[in-house]
Design brief:
Elements lengths: L16 H14 L5 H11 L3 H8 L3 H8 L7 H21 L1
Helix pairs in contact: 1-2, 1-5, 2-3, 2-4
Length: 97
Amino acid sequence: MALETFPYDTADYLTTPEAVFYFLEAELEENEPSYWPGAIAIVAKARGGFEHLAEETALPIEELRRAADETNPPERDALVKVMEAYRRRMSSTSRVA
C-alpha cells in the first residue's frame, strides 16, 4: 500500500503577525543563513506578495526582493527587520484586543 501524501506550503499557515514572527524567529535560531532568503520569500507569498509585505513592514520593496533572492548573500539584517516589523504589529494588535 502506497503512502498517501498531501501538499504542504508553509505560507498557508502564516496568517497572523504572530505566526510570521515566530516562523522567522525559528529560521533565525536555526542559524543557517542559506535558509533566510527562502524564509523571506515564504513570508512574502503568505502576506500577498512583496508589495504587500513592503507595506506591512515599511521596508523598501527592493530590499525585500534582494533579501529573498537566493543568488545574493543571505542578509541577516533584512530578516531581523522583517521580524521586528511583525513584532511591532503583534504588540499593536494585542493592545487593541
